[in-house]
Amino acid sequence: AEEHKFVIIERKFKDKDGNKHYNDYKVIRHYGEGSVGKVVEVVNTNTNKHYAMKIVNKLLLKMRKEYIRVGKGKMGIKTAFDAVEKEINIIKNLDHENIITLHEILTDTENEKLYLILDNCEQGEIMKWKAENMEFIPC
């Protein structure tokens, strides 16, 4: 798998139509959001290729802490951002046609956000969570 570096966002603006731009990516559609971030569809303005952009708030993730056992009688602290870093390290090393590819990682030093540029799954979600049954069901 290719090596991914964090690319600093140098150009961040809204165009005349109100679309947000991050470097070479223009936001064209909002997919959804969770407690620490959101996912949008973007188009690379140079190549016209569509991607999913997962935006995560590093500051919120670093504030979510849990204590873990790190050895006999010793405790450590793990943050939710540690889990995101682990996800990034795993996904950037995977290379298979059935697994989403991580193409680029953008970082915004001003607002402590990470922008993961991923394959865009045109068909959408493959499963939804059904809370009343506590199970995933096919879409």
From TrEMBL:
Coiled-coil residue windows: none
Entry-linked InterPro entries: Kinase-like_dom_sf, Prot_kinase_dom
Record PROSITE patterns: PROTEIN_KINASE_DOM (PS50011)
Protein species of origin: Euplotes harpa
Lineage: Eukaryota, Sar, Alveolata, Ciliophora, Intramacronucleata
Gene3D superfamilies listed in its UniProt record: Phosphorylase Kinase, domain 1 (3.30.200.20)
Gene Ontology MF terms: ATP binding; protein kinase activity
Pfam families: Pkinase (PF00069)
Name the UniProt record assigns to this protein: Protein kinase domain-containing protein
Sequence ranges assigned to domain Protein kinase in this UniProt record: 25-139
